[in-house]
Amino acid sequence: QVQLVESGGGLVQAGDSLRLSCEASGRTLNSYGMGWFRQAPGKEREFVAAITWSGASTYKTMSLKGRFTISRDKAKNTVYLQMNSLKAEDTAVYYCAADRRAIPSRLQSEYDYWGQGTQVTVSS
């Protein structure tokens, strides 16, 4: 079993940066692909970014390229989401998830474990 705990969310102003962390416990994530999703108020949860088990490849929603970066530290069993130039429309609850497959999916249904989420609020 894997437990995922997100942290790093908060209230920031437009243009600021935040780095979200997702720490795993229970077992190592080194063989898992990892993803970040977000859910804005009144909207469905959507894919943000994913990273392979090795960290060699990453995938992002096209609209977020250039602002968001996903990375992982295997030694710390932690995945990060660096978010720069934040906009009001980035306001959402951000979730990390683990996919048993080495190459993660963009589909929520393919993920096996989820964290509880961390709130990011961007004021304009």
What does this structure look like?
The chain is mainly β and 124 residues long. The protein has no helices and 11 strands. Strands 2, 4, 5, 6, 9, 10 and 11 form a 7-stranded mixed β-sheet that branches. The chain has a 4-stranded antiparallel β-sheet with strand order 1-3-8-7, with no helix packed on it. A hairpin with a 4-residue loop joins strand 7 (68-73) and strand 8 (78-83). The chain is globular, with a radius of gyration of 13 Å.
Shape: globular
Please report the total strand number as a whole number.
11
Percent of sequence in beta strands: over 45%
**CA radius of gyration:** 13 Å
Helix content: under 10%
Topology, element by element:
Elements: E1 3-7, E2 10-13, E3 18-25, E4 33-39, E5 46-51, E6 58-60, E7 68-73, E8 78-83, E9 92-99, E10 113-114, E11 118-123
List keywords for this structure.
single chain, 124 residues, mainly beta, 4-stranded antiparallel beta sheet, 49% strand
Summarize the structure.
The protein is mainly β and 124 residues long. It has no helices and eleven strands.
